[in-house]
């Protein structure tokens, strides 16, 4: 990341009150994943901050645009049910497996392959399940995803499982059908068990398109947290700040690779420092 380091090197401490280089910095920021509006607001707010160093001023402003909502996974007594949503290609199914691996030490985990219209997704989750020794509930190809989710709830209860992670479809070629399907899955689950979290998987390399995806899913289901994938050298990282500022949805987990253990809690302090340095 380090998208701000280029122009920070231009600003002298003695010029901080006037920040003459920030006009140029705004143009640089607009070219990143922050988006024009947020970049402009960050520059204007940074102008008003009294601080000894440019880094301190910018760090203060950037931190103020992050969500203040809790970042820990909401764990319920009994069964914690988590729907994982997102468009195809973001690493959604792999993220489900990573979540399962991460929370397995805290109790029995069951996986549900509710992306029934994509046989590859079901097979992929079943493969992950075998690797980490977890049961995967699935249905026939093109079966009702809500019925798979319901069966998974029943199976999880019978096994006295602690966690159920549900992989859902990610087709956006017909947005209304996908969102109606997600809404139906959630309603069916909540007839018998509360949905603890709806986690949206966003590919950090998609830039501002990731923010648009977040808006679409947030309108359809109550997205409670973001899992940001591919937040590494190929990503400028600004999309995380744009999502939290625009939608007040906290990023809860970050994936930086393909390994099953490659999922960590999002650290806002480290993230801001990474943007600056």
From TrEMBL:
Keywords: Cell membrane, Cytoplasm, GTP-binding, Hydrolase, Membrane, Nucleotide-binding, Receptor
Main localisation: membrane
PROSITE patterns tied to this protein: SRP54 (PS00300)
Swiss-Prot/TrEMBL catalytic activity: GTP + H2O = GDP + phosphate + H(+)
Membrane topology of this protein: Peripheral membrane protein
Annotated GO CC locations: cytoplasm; plasma membrane
EC number: 3.6.5.4
Compartments (UniProt record): Cell membrane; Cytoplasm
Top-level taxon of origin: Bacteria
GO molecular function: GTP binding; GTPase activity; signal recognition particle binding
Coiled coil: none
Annotated family: Belongs to the GTP-binding SRP family. FtsY subfamily.
Quaternary state and interactors: Part of the signal recognition particle protein translocation system, which is composed of SRP and FtsY.
Name by which UniProt lists this protein: Signal recognition particle receptor FtsY
Origin species: Candidatus Planktophila limnetica
Gene name in the database record: ftsY
């Amino acid at each position: 990341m380090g998208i701000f380091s280029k122009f920070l090197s231009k600003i002298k401490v003695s010029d901080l009150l006037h920040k003459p280089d920030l006009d140029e910095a705004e143009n640089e920021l607009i070219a990143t994943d922050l988006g024009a509006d947020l970049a402009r607001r960050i520059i204007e707010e940074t102008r008003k901050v009294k601080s000894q160093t440019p880094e301190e001023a910018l760090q203060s402003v950037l931190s103020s645009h992050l969500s203040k909502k809790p970042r820990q996974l909401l764990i319920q007594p009994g069964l914690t049910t988590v729907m994982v949503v997102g468009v195809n290609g973001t690493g959604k199914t792999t993220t489900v497996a990573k979540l399962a691996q991460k929370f397995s030490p805290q109790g029995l985990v069951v996986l549900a392959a509710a992306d029934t219209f994509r046989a590859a997704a079901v097979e992929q989750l079943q493969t992950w399940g075998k690797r980490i020794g977890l049961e995967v509930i699935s249905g026939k190809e093109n079966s009702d995803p809500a019925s798979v989710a319901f069966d998974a709830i029943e199976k999880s209860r019978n096994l006295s499982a602690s966690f159920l992670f549900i992989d859902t479809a990610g087709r956006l070629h017909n947005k209304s059908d996908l969102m109606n399907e997600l809404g139906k899955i959630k309603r069916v689950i909540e007839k018998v068990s509360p949905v603890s979290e709806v986690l949206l998987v966003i590919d950090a390399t998609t830039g501002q398109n990731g923010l648009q995806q977040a808006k679409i899913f947030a309108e359809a289901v109550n997205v409670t947290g973001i899992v940001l994938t591919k937040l590494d050298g190929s990503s400028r990282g600004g999309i995380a700040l744009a999502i939290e500022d625009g939608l007040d949805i906290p990023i809860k987990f970050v994936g930086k690779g393909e390994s099953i253990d490659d999922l960590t809690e999002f650290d806002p302090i480290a993230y801001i420092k990474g943007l600056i340095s």
